[in-house]
Design goal:
Layout: H1 6-13, E1 17-21, H2 26-42, E2 48-53, H3 63-74, E3 78-81, H4 88-98, H5 112-129, E4 133-137, H6 146-149, E5 154-156, E6 168-172, H7 180-187, H8 191-204, H9 215-218, H10 234-243, H11 245-258
Helix pairs in contact: 2-7, 4-11, 10-11
Length: about 290
């Protein structure tokens, strides 16, 4: 059951728009499906809109089509926003040129990929389109990491709000207490059913046409964000490189030119040389 803080329910009961951030990942899929059901049950009159921050060539090619498919499944509009000047790969290249002495890649300590290419562009859209009240939802779950375990149920979204214009925007984290089986149940699978699909796809290389989640999960990904995510584990990076070879090659070229590795202790040049027993994630959080 989704958490329902009093302040959130009050805003939605009074007609606030419900803006659901979707990345293509399982958690945002689950959240969107659950919220669509809750909106019908409680009769919330404000619009429900899915919003996707497209970071360009670093995305899985299937991410935007999957988000569009999800919006169609729910029966609501999808808004796609982008950085006004450059995509994320261009941003990495620019940092390499401006600061040749510093790593050009984002990291767990410097997550400017999320702040600049996702949150900031969504904030801009919110300021221009939501009127006086909106509840924005983000699919964090406590079991994902220590940092997410400490996330509040909701908080003010300061950079999208404007008290002098009577515009209030809050962030709501409605699936904080969901466990992995809960997420896949909402999407339409048990964990065992998902594992069976992954086994078959590994054997055939063919993702079922009616697969309900992002195709990367059928390939065996644990998480889906960028195709090559600096927070990704070895398994997910290998899948990303295999299915997005142009992005993989572009990032290796940046490694070569900058002399910094994509992750602190892992170069993409040796992605397929690492023993399988080292497949633990370097960083335990999704890029959301």
């Amino acid at each position: 059951m989704l958490n329902q803080p009093h302040d959130v329910r009050s805003m939605l009961d009074e007609g606030a728009q419900l803006i659901v951030s979707v990345s293509g990942g399982k958690d945002s899929d689950c959240m969107a499906l659950e919220l669509a059901t809750m909106r019908r049950v409680y009769g919330w009159s404000g619009r429900l809109i899915l919003i996707h921050a497209d970071v360009g060539r670093m995305e899985w090619k299937q991410s935007l089509p999957h988000c569009q498919k999800l919006a169609t499944r729910i029966g609501v509009p999808l808004v796609v926003v982008k950085h006004p000047k450059r995509d994320l790969l261009e941003g990495i290249e620019r940092r390499m040129e401006v600061r040749p002495d510093a790593p050009p890649f984002p990291s767990s300590a410097a997550r400017w990929c999320t702040s600049d290419y996702k949150r900031a562009v969504i904030d801009t859209w919110l300021r221009n389109h939501i009127g006086t009240a909106a509840v924005c939802t983000i699919g964090f779950r406590r079991e994902e990491s220590t940092a997410r375990e400490r996330k509040p149920e909701w908080q003010e979204r300061v950079h999208a709000s404007a008290p002098t214009k009577r515009r209030r925007v809050i962030d709501w984290h409605p699936i904080l207490d969901y466990k992995l089986p809960d997420v896949w149940r909402v999407i339409g699978y048990t964990v065992d059913e998902l594992r069976a699909i992954q086994t078959e796809v590994k054997r055939t290389g063919i993702v079922p046409v009616d697969f309900k989640a992002h195709p990367a999960y059928a390939y065996g990904n644990e998480r889906v964000s960028c195709a090559m995510c600096v927070l990704g584990n070895l398994n997910d990076l290998r899948n990303g490189a295999k299915h997005n070879p142009e992005t993989h090659a572009a990032l290796i070229a940046i490694e070569n030119r900058s002399e910094f590795t994509f992750q602190q202790h892992r170069s993409l040049k040796h992605l397929f040389d690492t023993p399988d027993d080292q497949q633990l994630a370097l960083f335990p959080e999704d890029c959301s």
